[in-house]
Each structure stands twice: as structure tokens, then as C-alpha cells.
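FORM 7B: Structural annotation worksheet

SECTION A. Query
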Amino acid sequence: MTIQIILLALGIIAASLFIVSKVVNYSFKTIVLKGVASLFFVALGIVCFCLNFEGYFFFKLFTVIGLFFGFLGDVFLGFKYVNEKNKKMWILFGLFAFAIGHILYFSGLFIDFYEPGNALPFVLSFGTPFITIFIYLVISRKLGIHFEKKMLIFVLFYLYCLFAMLSTSLYIGFLHRFSKVMLIMFFIGAVFFATSDFMLAGSYFKDGERPKAYNAIYSVFYYAAQFIIAFSIFFLV
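SECTION B. Predicted structure
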């Protein structure tokens, strides 16, 4: 486990430097730090996959690829700060990259953990997000978060992928009684991811300045989510 701990520690250091740079003075250096921090959770996933290669192959493979799309999403969203002219384009690129990551996450869970003949987890995993999105939009509106009409369809698509990943991790976990440490860790990572994105929406789509601590907090949730998901592969035996 030595290599994993080293990568995790270096990733935490890189993520911390990124968050400090983001809060103090966002620049191209901040984007570089963000990319480096994200590369560490990709590297952690790859190492965990290679050192724990037997069993649940598709979940592990799809998770590693999903982490890579998370890295791409981070880079795309980072460029919106230094290329204001094409800000919306970078946000859309980021949304699609993360959406693909979420699709890979819940696809891997279903391929390796779904039990044929049991339709309930399937229905709940992909039906619940519609209810969750409705609740999310109601709460967002009351908090003053307004999504632009031109971007709403893309936001809804992303939210569906996000909540499908969250609900799938929950119902697959219940299906297997959370008997594996990996299932517990993945669910916690999914919750942190959803929490980060809820706060991120307040940063992107709500008028007015957010406190600097606000931007730091959702970044902490985000990196915690990705590193937990990456590390969960190691505990899948």
C-alpha cells in the first residue's frame, strides 16, 4: 500500500496548493496546479487497478477511465477563468467530460454488481434521479441559483448523470448490504461529489460574489470525492 499512500499524500498536497492559489489569485498557474492534483487521483486509480487486477475488471477499468475524464473536466473548467470570451464553451466541455465520467462510474457498478432478475435496483437507480433533479431545481431556485435557458438542457443532462451515479452507488450498496469496503467508499465519494457540485452551481449560476472560503470548501469536497473513488478500487477483493 506504500505507493498508494505516497500518491494520496502528494495528491492532497497538490490539491491544497491549488485551492490556496484559487482563493488568493486565480491564474494560469492555478490551472496547472489543478491539472497536477487531478493527475494524482488518476495515477492513484491506475496503480490500485494494476496492483489489484483480479476480479471486477469492468468496474475497475471504467472507474479509472472515469477518473481520467474527471481530469479532463478539471482542465476544461479551469480555462474558463483565463479565457472569459469562451467561458460558456469551457463550462460545457467540462460538463460533458464529467458526465461521461459519471456514466462510466455507474456503468461499471452495474456490469459487475447487478444481479440478473432483480429489477428494483435498476428501476431505482435510473428512476430516482428524475425526482432528485426536480427537488434540486426547486431548492436551487429558492437559493437564487438560475440556470441560463440555453444551458439548461446540458445542465439537466449532467445532473441526471450525477444523480444516477449517486443513486446507483446507494442501491447497489444496499443490494450487497455494503458488504465490501469499496461499496461504502464509493458511496461516500458519490455523496461528496454531489455536495461539491451543488455548491459549485451556487458559484457559477448565482449572482454576486461568493466568500473565498466557499470556493475552497467545494473544492475540498470535490478532491475528497475523486481520491476516495480512486482509492476504493484497492479495497475491491
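SECTION C. Observations
The chain has one domain: 2-235. The mean pLDDT is 90.

SECTION D. Sign-off
Analyst initials: ____
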